[in-house]
Design brief:
- It is a single chain.
- This protein has helices at 3-9, 60-73, 75-78, 95-108, 110-115, 122-125, 155-163, 180-188, 205-212, 222-237, 268-282, 297-304, 331-341, 346-353, 364-371, 385-401, 408-414, 419-422, 440-457, and strands at 12-22, 26-35, 39-41, 44-48, 85-88, 127-130, 147-150, 171-176, 196-202, 241-244, 287-290.
- The chain is of the alpha/beta class.
- Strands 1, 2, 3, 4, 5, 6, 7, 8, 9, 10 and 11 form an 11-stranded mixed beta sheet that branches.
- Helix 2 (60-73) packs antiparallel against helix 10 (222-237) and helix 7 packs across helix 12.
- The model has no long low-confidence stretch (mean pLDDT 94).
Length: 458
Protein backbone atom coordinates (compact mmCIF):
# COMPACT_ATOMS: atom_id res chain seq x y z
CA UNK A 1 0.00 0.00 0.00
CA UNK A 2 1.06 3.60 -0.50
CA UNK A 3 2.85 5.45 2.31
CA UNK A 4 1.06 8.83 2.14
CA UNK A 5 -2.36 7.24 1.73
CA UNK A 6 -1.81 5.05 4.79
CA UNK A 7 -0.60 8.00 6.87
CA UNK A 8 -3.70 9.96 5.89
CA UNK A 9 -6.10 7.09 6.59
CA UNK A 10 -4.51 6.04 9.91
CA UNK A 11 -3.00 9.22 11.30
CA UNK A 12 -2.58 8.33 15.00
CA UNK A 13 -0.69 5.54 16.74
CA UNK A 14 -1.34 5.02 20.47
CA UNK A 15 0.94 3.49 23.08
CA UNK A 16 -1.90 3.00 25.55
CA UNK A 17 -0.30 0.97 28.32
CA UNK A 18 2.15 -1.60 29.58
CA UNK A 19 1.02 -4.07 32.24
CA UNK A 20 3.41 -5.92 34.57
CA UNK A 21 2.40 -9.32 35.96
CA UNK A 22 4.63 -11.59 37.99
CA UNK A 23 4.58 -14.92 39.76
CA UNK A 24 7.37 -16.71 41.58
CA UNK A 25 8.47 -18.17 38.24
CA UNK A 26 8.10 -15.41 35.65
CA UNK A 27 7.82 -11.70 34.97
CA UNK A 28 5.49 -10.68 32.14
CA UNK A 29 5.01 -7.41 30.27
CA UNK A 30 1.90 -6.96 28.13
CA UNK A 31 1.73 -3.98 25.79
CA UNK A 32 -1.35 -2.26 24.41
CA UNK A 33 -0.81 -0.42 21.11
CA UNK A 34 -3.41 0.87 18.67
CA UNK A 35 -3.43 2.21 15.14
CA UNK A 36 -6.46 4.49 14.90
CA UNK A 37 -9.07 3.03 12.57
CA UNK A 38 -7.20 -0.25 12.12
CA UNK A 39 -6.57 -2.42 15.21
CA UNK A 40 -5.24 -2.86 18.72
CA UNK A 41 -2.03 -4.87 19.12
CA UNK A 42 -0.98 -6.72 22.27
CA UNK A 43 2.52 -8.21 22.12
CA UNK A 44 4.17 -9.48 25.28
CA UNK A 45 7.54 -10.32 26.79
CA UNK A 46 8.02 -13.04 29.42
CA UNK A 47 11.21 -13.21 31.52
CA UNK A 48 11.94 -16.14 33.84
CA UNK A 49 12.62 -14.86 37.35
CA UNK A 50 15.56 -15.62 39.63
CA UNK A 51 14.91 -18.04 42.46
CA UNK A 52 13.16 -16.45 45.40
CA UNK A 53 9.97 -14.55 46.12
CA UNK A 54 11.11 -10.99 45.49
CA UNK A 55 8.72 -8.63 43.72
CA UNK A 56 10.19 -6.47 40.93
CA UNK A 57 7.20 -4.79 39.29
CA UNK A 58 7.08 -1.98 41.84
CA UNK A 59 10.73 -0.94 41.29
CA UNK A 60 11.06 2.35 39.40
CA UNK A 61 13.99 1.05 37.34
CA UNK A 62 12.00 -2.03 36.30
CA UNK A 63 8.96 0.04 35.38
CA UNK A 64 11.07 2.53 33.43
CA UNK A 65 12.85 -0.29 31.59
CA UNK A 66 9.53 -1.98 30.75
CA UNK A 67 8.03 1.29 29.49
CA UNK A 68 11.12 1.89 27.35
CA UNK A 69 10.95 -1.64 25.98
CA UNK A 70 7.46 -0.74 24.77
CA UNK A 71 8.83 2.38 23.10
CA UNK A 72 11.09 0.24 20.90
CA UNK A 73 8.57 -2.61 20.49
CA UNK A 74 5.96 -0.22 19.12
CA UNK A 75 7.99 0.49 15.98
CA UNK A 76 7.20 -3.00 14.61
CA UNK A 77 3.49 -2.05 14.63
CA UNK A 78 3.81 1.65 13.78
CA UNK A 79 5.51 0.77 10.50
CA UNK A 80 2.29 -0.82 9.17
CA UNK A 81 0.91 2.65 8.38
CA UNK A 82 3.67 5.05 9.54
CA UNK A 83 1.13 7.19 11.38
CA UNK A 84 2.36 10.81 11.58
CA UNK A 85 1.29 11.20 15.23
CA UNK A 86 2.40 8.88 18.05
CA UNK A 87 0.57 9.44 21.36
CA UNK A 88 2.23 8.04 24.51
CA UNK A 89 -0.42 7.60 27.22
CA UNK A 90 1.41 5.43 29.79
CA UNK A 91 4.51 7.49 30.55
CA UNK A 92 6.15 10.86 30.16
CA UNK A 93 9.02 11.83 27.87
CA UNK A 94 10.94 15.09 28.08
CA UNK A 95 12.16 16.88 24.96
CA UNK A 96 15.58 15.21 25.09
CA UNK A 97 13.96 11.77 25.24
CA UNK A 98 11.71 12.58 22.32
CA UNK A 99 14.75 13.56 20.26
CA UNK A 100 16.49 10.35 21.37
CA UNK A 101 13.64 8.12 20.23
CA UNK A 102 13.15 9.92 16.93
CA UNK A 103 16.85 9.51 16.13
CA UNK A 104 16.66 5.78 16.85
CA UNK A 105 13.46 5.32 14.84
CA UNK A 106 14.74 7.25 11.84
CA UNK A 107 18.16 5.62 11.64
CA UNK A 108 16.97 2.19 12.74
CA UNK A 109 14.34 2.24 9.98
CA UNK A 110 16.79 3.39 7.30
CA UNK A 111 16.59 0.07 5.46
CA UNK A 112 12.79 0.00 5.80
CA UNK A 113 12.48 3.47 4.26
CA UNK A 114 14.99 2.66 1.52
CA UNK A 115 13.36 -0.60 0.43
CA UNK A 116 9.85 0.88 0.54
CA UNK A 117 10.99 3.95 -1.46
CA UNK A 118 9.89 6.29 1.33
CA UNK A 119 11.42 9.75 1.40
CA UNK A 120 11.14 11.42 4.79
CA UNK A 121 13.21 13.19 7.41
CA UNK A 122 13.73 12.70 11.12
CA UNK A 123 11.54 15.73 11.79
CA UNK A 124 8.75 14.80 9.36
CA UNK A 125 8.61 11.06 10.10
CA UNK A 126 6.41 11.42 13.19
CA UNK A 127 5.37 13.69 16.03
CA UNK A 128 5.73 12.06 19.45
CA UNK A 129 3.11 13.37 21.89
CA UNK A 130 3.51 12.21 25.52
CA UNK A 131 0.32 12.69 27.58
CA UNK A 132 0.94 10.18 30.39
CA UNK A 133 2.44 10.59 33.85
CA UNK A 134 6.05 10.27 34.98
CA UNK A 135 7.00 6.66 35.76
CA UNK A 136 7.24 6.11 39.52
CA UNK A 137 8.14 3.24 41.86
CA UNK A 138 10.25 2.37 44.86
CA UNK A 139 14.02 2.85 44.60
CA UNK A 140 16.27 -0.15 44.01
CA UNK A 141 18.99 -0.41 46.68
CA UNK A 142 20.53 -3.68 45.42
CA UNK A 143 24.19 -3.80 44.40
CA UNK A 144 24.62 -5.07 40.86
CA UNK A 145 27.29 -7.64 39.94
CA UNK A 146 28.13 -10.16 37.22
CA UNK A 147 27.60 -10.33 33.48
CA UNK A 148 24.61 -10.85 31.24
CA UNK A 149 25.90 -12.15 27.87
CA UNK A 150 23.48 -11.96 24.92
CA UNK A 151 24.05 -15.04 22.77
CA UNK A 152 23.08 -15.24 19.11
CA UNK A 153 24.89 -18.46 18.26
CA UNK A 154 27.56 -16.97 16.00
CA UNK A 155 31.33 -16.89 16.33
CA UNK A 156 31.26 -13.48 18.06
CA UNK A 157 29.20 -14.57 21.06
CA UNK A 158 31.40 -17.66 21.45
CA UNK A 159 34.48 -15.43 21.61
CA UNK A 160 32.80 -13.25 24.26
CA UNK A 161 31.77 -16.26 26.33
CA UNK A 162 35.29 -17.65 26.10
CA UNK A 163 36.86 -14.33 27.13
CA UNK A 164 34.58 -14.21 30.18
CA UNK A 165 34.88 -17.88 31.17
CA UNK A 166 36.91 -17.10 34.33
CA UNK A 167 33.92 -15.18 35.73
CA UNK A 168 31.49 -17.98 34.80
CA UNK A 169 30.05 -18.21 38.32
CA UNK A 170 28.63 -14.68 37.98
CA UNK A 171 27.59 -14.95 34.32
CA UNK A 172 24.24 -15.60 32.69
CA UNK A 173 23.66 -16.17 28.97
CA UNK A 174 20.68 -14.31 27.50
CA UNK A 175 18.57 -15.31 24.49
CA UNK A 176 15.32 -13.98 23.06
CA UNK A 177 12.99 -16.84 22.09
CA UNK A 178 13.95 -20.48 21.71
CA UNK A 179 16.16 -20.08 18.65
CA UNK A 180 17.71 -23.50 18.99
CA UNK A 181 20.99 -22.60 17.29
CA UNK A 182 21.50 -19.91 19.95
CA UNK A 183 20.27 -22.18 22.76
CA UNK A 184 22.60 -25.01 21.78
CA UNK A 185 25.49 -22.59 21.37
CA UNK A 186 25.01 -21.24 24.89
CA UNK A 187 24.71 -24.77 26.23
CA UNK A 188 27.91 -25.79 24.44
CA UNK A 189 29.68 -23.03 26.38
CA UNK A 190 28.31 -24.42 29.65
CA UNK A 191 25.22 -22.23 30.11
CA UNK A 192 22.43 -24.56 31.16
CA UNK A 193 19.58 -24.55 33.64
CA UNK A 194 19.28 -21.31 35.54
CA UNK A 195 22.53 -20.04 33.94
CA UNK A 196 20.61 -19.66 30.66
CA UNK A 197 17.91 -16.98 30.57
CA UNK A 198 15.52 -17.46 27.64
CA UNK A 199 13.12 -14.55 27.26
CA UNK A 200 9.95 -15.16 25.26
CA UNK A 201 8.85 -12.38 22.93
CA UNK A 202 5.40 -12.85 21.39
CA UNK A 203 4.30 -10.85 18.36
CA UNK A 204 0.65 -9.99 17.90
CA UNK A 205 -0.58 -12.21 15.02
CA UNK A 206 -2.78 -9.36 13.79
CA UNK A 207 0.37 -7.53 12.66
CA UNK A 208 1.36 -10.51 10.52
CA UNK A 209 -2.12 -10.62 8.99
CA UNK A 210 -1.92 -6.95 8.03
CA UNK A 211 1.48 -7.62 6.46
CA UNK A 212 -0.17 -10.25 4.25
CA UNK A 213 -2.81 -7.71 3.23
CA UNK A 214 -0.16 -5.36 1.89
CA UNK A 215 0.41 -2.95 4.76
CA UNK A 216 3.98 -1.69 4.99
CA UNK A 217 6.62 -4.12 6.21
CA UNK A 218 10.39 -4.29 6.53
CA UNK A 219 13.47 -4.29 8.73
CA UNK A 220 13.30 -2.79 12.22
CA UNK A 221 16.17 -2.17 14.69
CA UNK A 222 15.94 -5.57 16.40
CA UNK A 223 19.25 -5.05 18.23
CA UNK A 224 17.71 -2.01 19.94
CA UNK A 225 14.82 -4.17 21.12
CA UNK A 226 17.37 -6.71 22.37
CA UNK A 227 19.15 -3.89 24.19
CA UNK A 228 16.06 -2.84 26.15
CA UNK A 229 15.00 -6.46 26.76
CA UNK A 230 18.48 -7.22 28.12
CA UNK A 231 18.33 -4.14 30.35
CA UNK A 232 14.98 -5.18 31.83
CA UNK A 233 16.41 -8.65 32.43
CA UNK A 234 19.65 -7.28 33.89
CA UNK A 235 17.72 -5.03 36.31
CA UNK A 236 15.59 -7.96 37.49
CA UNK A 237 18.66 -10.19 37.94
CA UNK A 238 20.83 -7.44 39.44
CA UNK A 239 23.50 -7.68 36.72
CA UNK A 240 26.16 -4.99 36.47
CA UNK A 241 27.32 -5.58 32.90
CA UNK A 242 25.52 -6.43 29.66
CA UNK A 243 28.32 -7.70 27.43
CA UNK A 244 27.41 -7.47 23.75
CA UNK A 245 29.51 -8.97 20.95
CA UNK A 246 29.30 -6.22 18.33
CA UNK A 247 32.54 -5.50 16.49
CA UNK A 248 33.92 -2.27 15.04
CA UNK A 249 32.81 -3.12 11.50
CA UNK A 250 29.12 -2.72 12.39
CA UNK A 251 29.69 1.03 11.95
CA UNK A 252 30.07 0.81 8.16
CA UNK A 253 26.95 1.84 6.14
CA UNK A 254 25.23 -0.74 3.97
CA UNK A 255 24.44 1.71 1.17
CA UNK A 256 27.48 3.48 -0.26
CA UNK A 257 27.79 7.19 0.62
CA UNK A 258 24.78 7.17 2.94
CA UNK A 259 23.83 6.65 6.59
CA UNK A 260 21.64 3.66 5.75
CA UNK A 261 22.99 0.81 7.85
CA UNK A 262 21.33 -2.58 8.34
CA UNK A 263 23.27 -2.79 11.61
CA UNK A 264 22.54 0.74 12.94
CA UNK A 265 21.54 -0.45 16.42
CA UNK A 266 24.82 -2.41 16.61
CA UNK A 267 26.94 0.68 15.91
CA UNK A 268 29.10 2.53 18.40
CA UNK A 269 26.95 5.60 17.82
CA UNK A 270 23.92 3.74 19.13
CA UNK A 271 25.97 2.24 21.97
CA UNK A 272 26.95 5.73 23.12
CA UNK A 273 23.37 6.97 22.80
CA UNK A 274 22.11 3.95 24.72
CA UNK A 275 24.56 4.56 27.55
CA UNK A 276 23.27 8.13 27.80
CA UNK A 277 19.68 6.87 27.90
CA UNK A 278 20.50 4.33 30.60
CA UNK A 279 22.44 6.79 32.75
CA UNK A 280 19.82 9.55 32.43
CA UNK A 281 16.43 7.83 32.44
CA UNK A 282 16.75 4.25 33.76
CA UNK A 283 19.82 3.57 35.94
CA UNK A 284 23.58 4.16 35.74
CA UNK A 285 24.14 0.93 37.72
CA UNK A 286 23.78 -1.28 34.64
CA UNK A 287 26.50 -0.88 32.00
CA UNK A 288 25.69 -1.86 28.41
CA UNK A 289 28.72 -2.24 26.15
CA UNK A 290 30.16 -4.36 23.39
CA UNK A 291 33.07 -6.47 24.60
CA UNK A 292 34.39 -6.97 21.05
CA UNK A 293 34.09 -3.35 19.85
CA UNK A 294 37.89 -2.83 19.96
CA UNK A 295 38.39 -5.68 17.47
CA UNK A 296 37.83 -6.24 13.78
CA UNK A 297 35.88 -9.16 12.34
CA UNK A 298 39.17 -10.70 11.26
CA UNK A 299 40.68 -10.51 14.73
CA UNK A 300 37.52 -12.09 16.15
CA UNK A 301 37.55 -14.81 13.48
CA UNK A 302 41.23 -15.41 14.28
CA UNK A 303 40.39 -16.04 17.93
CA UNK A 304 37.40 -18.20 17.04
CA UNK A 305 39.48 -20.30 14.66
CA UNK A 306 41.34 -21.63 17.72
CA UNK A 307 38.11 -22.56 19.57
CA UNK A 308 37.69 -25.78 17.61
CA UNK A 309 35.23 -27.37 20.03
CA UNK A 310 32.64 -24.86 18.85
CA UNK A 311 33.20 -25.10 15.08
CA UNK A 312 30.49 -27.71 14.63
CA UNK A 313 28.02 -25.82 16.83
CA UNK A 314 28.11 -22.15 15.87
CA UNK A 315 25.45 -20.79 13.48
CA UNK A 316 24.69 -17.29 12.26
CA UNK A 317 22.70 -17.87 9.06
CA UNK A 318 19.29 -16.17 9.33
CA UNK A 319 17.84 -18.26 6.49
CA UNK A 320 18.65 -21.57 8.16
CA UNK A 321 18.38 -20.54 11.82
CA UNK A 322 15.14 -22.42 12.52
CA UNK A 323 16.66 -25.64 11.22
CA UNK A 324 20.03 -24.98 12.90
CA UNK A 325 21.90 -25.04 9.62
CA UNK A 326 23.92 -22.91 7.26
CA UNK A 327 21.92 -22.42 4.06
CA UNK A 328 25.14 -22.07 2.05
CA UNK A 329 23.62 -19.55 -0.37
CA UNK A 330 23.18 -16.23 1.48
CA UNK A 331 25.45 -13.26 2.09
CA UNK A 332 25.90 -14.09 5.77
CA UNK A 333 27.05 -17.64 5.01
CA UNK A 334 29.49 -16.42 2.37
CA UNK A 335 30.84 -13.68 4.61
CA UNK A 336 31.54 -16.02 7.54
CA UNK A 337 33.04 -18.54 5.11
CA UNK A 338 35.45 -15.89 3.77
CA UNK A 339 36.44 -14.81 7.28
CA UNK A 340 37.17 -18.37 8.36
CA UNK A 341 39.04 -19.12 5.13
CA UNK A 342 41.81 -16.79 6.32
CA UNK A 343 42.59 -19.30 9.08
CA UNK A 344 41.21 -22.74 8.23
CA UNK A 345 41.87 -25.32 5.52
CA UNK A 346 39.40 -25.69 2.66
CA UNK A 347 38.27 -29.10 3.94
CA UNK A 348 37.55 -27.67 7.39
CA UNK A 349 35.48 -24.90 5.79
CA UNK A 350 33.40 -27.42 3.84
CA UNK A 351 32.86 -29.51 6.99
CA UNK A 352 31.54 -26.46 8.86
CA UNK A 353 29.13 -25.19 6.19
CA UNK A 354 28.35 -28.45 4.38
CA UNK A 355 28.76 -26.46 1.18
CA UNK A 356 31.63 -25.45 -1.09
CA UNK A 357 30.72 -21.78 -1.42
CA UNK A 358 34.14 -20.57 -2.56
CA UNK A 359 33.87 -22.85 -5.60
CA UNK A 360 30.24 -21.93 -6.27
CA UNK A 361 30.08 -19.44 -9.17
CA UNK A 362 26.42 -18.67 -8.37
CA UNK A 363 27.77 -16.76 -5.33
CA UNK A 364 29.61 -14.29 -7.58
CA UNK A 365 27.11 -11.43 -7.17
CA UNK A 366 27.21 -11.67 -3.37
CA UNK A 367 31.00 -11.95 -3.55
CA UNK A 368 31.12 -8.69 -5.53
CA UNK A 369 28.88 -6.96 -2.98
CA UNK A 370 30.95 -8.11 -0.01
CA UNK A 371 34.28 -7.07 -1.55
CA UNK A 372 33.08 -3.70 -2.80
CA UNK A 373 33.25 -4.60 -6.49
CA UNK A 374 29.57 -3.62 -6.32
CA UNK A 375 28.83 -0.35 -4.50
CA UNK A 376 26.30 -1.54 -1.93
CA UNK A 377 26.74 -4.26 0.68
CA UNK A 378 24.04 -6.88 1.24
CA UNK A 379 21.40 -6.00 3.84
CA UNK A 380 22.93 -8.42 6.34
CA UNK A 381 25.11 -8.31 9.44
CA UNK A 382 28.44 -8.56 7.66
CA UNK A 383 31.84 -6.93 8.10
CA UNK A 384 33.51 -4.13 6.20
CA UNK A 385 34.70 -4.36 2.63
CA UNK A 386 38.24 -3.81 3.90
CA UNK A 387 37.99 -6.85 6.18
CA UNK A 388 36.59 -9.05 3.40
CA UNK A 389 39.36 -8.11 0.98
CA UNK A 390 42.04 -8.62 3.61
CA UNK A 391 40.64 -12.06 4.53
CA UNK A 392 40.72 -13.09 0.88
CA UNK A 393 44.30 -11.84 0.44
CA UNK A 394 45.46 -13.70 3.55
CA UNK A 395 43.72 -16.88 2.40
CA UNK A 396 45.26 -16.63 -1.08
CA UNK A 397 48.72 -16.14 0.44
CA UNK A 398 48.25 -19.20 2.67
CA UNK A 399 47.09 -21.32 -0.27
CA UNK A 400 50.11 -20.30 -2.33
CA UNK A 401 52.54 -20.87 0.51
CA UNK A 402 51.26 -24.44 0.85
CA UNK A 403 51.06 -25.03 -2.90
CA UNK A 404 47.30 -25.48 -2.78
CA UNK A 405 44.90 -24.71 -5.64
CA UNK A 406 42.77 -21.60 -5.16
CA UNK A 407 38.96 -21.86 -4.99
CA UNK A 408 37.15 -20.48 -8.07
CA UNK A 409 35.98 -17.23 -6.44
CA UNK A 410 39.52 -16.52 -5.26
CA UNK A 411 40.94 -17.22 -8.71
CA UNK A 412 38.48 -14.68 -10.07
CA UNK A 413 39.50 -12.23 -7.35
CA UNK A 414 43.18 -12.70 -8.24
CA UNK A 415 42.39 -11.31 -11.70
CA UNK A 416 40.61 -8.23 -10.32
CA UNK A 417 42.00 -4.74 -9.79
CA UNK A 418 41.51 -5.21 -6.04
CA UNK A 419 44.06 -7.97 -5.58
CA UNK A 420 47.27 -5.96 -6.24
CA UNK A 421 46.26 -3.47 -3.53
CA UNK A 422 45.58 -6.13 -0.87
CA UNK A 423 48.05 -8.83 -1.98
CA UNK A 424 50.78 -8.01 0.53
CA UNK A 425 48.58 -6.87 3.43
CA UNK A 426 48.37 -8.97 6.59
CA UNK A 427 46.30 -8.98 9.78
CA UNK A 428 47.41 -6.46 12.40
CA UNK A 429 46.92 -8.32 15.67
CA UNK A 430 47.87 -5.18 17.61
CA UNK A 431 45.08 -3.08 16.06
CA UNK A 432 42.71 -1.64 18.67
CA UNK A 433 39.64 0.45 17.98
CA UNK A 434 39.64 3.16 20.64
CA UNK A 435 35.93 3.89 20.14
CA UNK A 436 34.65 1.50 22.78
CA UNK A 437 33.09 1.44 26.25
CA UNK A 438 34.89 -1.69 27.47
CA UNK A 439 35.79 -1.52 31.20
CA UNK A 440 39.53 -1.59 31.88
CA UNK A 441 39.54 -5.01 33.51
CA UNK A 442 37.82 -6.52 30.46
CA UNK A 443 40.08 -4.68 28.03
CA UNK A 444 43.01 -6.39 29.78
CA UNK A 445 41.44 -9.79 29.00
CA UNK A 446 41.18 -8.90 25.32
CA UNK A 447 44.75 -7.58 25.12
CA UNK A 448 46.05 -10.79 26.70
CA UNK A 449 44.10 -12.93 24.23
CA UNK A 450 45.31 -10.89 21.25
CA UNK A 451 48.91 -11.17 22.43
CA UNK A 452 48.49 -14.93 22.67
CA UNK A 453 46.92 -15.08 19.18
CA UNK A 454 49.74 -13.01 17.70
CA UNK A 455 52.36 -15.29 19.21
CA UNK A 456 50.60 -18.33 17.72
CA UNK A 457 50.55 -16.62 14.33
CA UNK A 458 54.29 -15.92 14.53
Amino acid sequence: MEYNELRSRHSVFYYHDFTLTESNAEFRVDFDFEIEGLSHFNPQMIIPKPAGEETYSNLRTVREAAFSLGMVELISYWKLTCAPRVVIECGMLDEAQIRWWKKLYFNGLGEFFYKNHIETTEAEMMEIVPVGEVITGRPDSRRCSGNLIPCGGGKDSFVSMDLLKDSFAENHAFIINHVMSAVHSAMAAGYRGDKLIIVERTLDPRMLEFNKLGYLNGHTPFSALCAFASVLTAVIYGKQYICLSNEASANEPTIHNSRINHQYSKTFEFELDFKHYMDTWITPEVHYFSLLRPLSELQIAGIFSTLKDYHSVFRSCNVGSKEERWCGHCAKCLFVCIMMSAFLEDGDIRNIFHADMLNDESMSDLFHQLTGMSDDKPFECVGTREEVNLAIAVSIARHKKKGQALPKLYRMYEESSYYPYYRDKRIDWDAWNSENLVPEEYAALIHARMKERKQNED
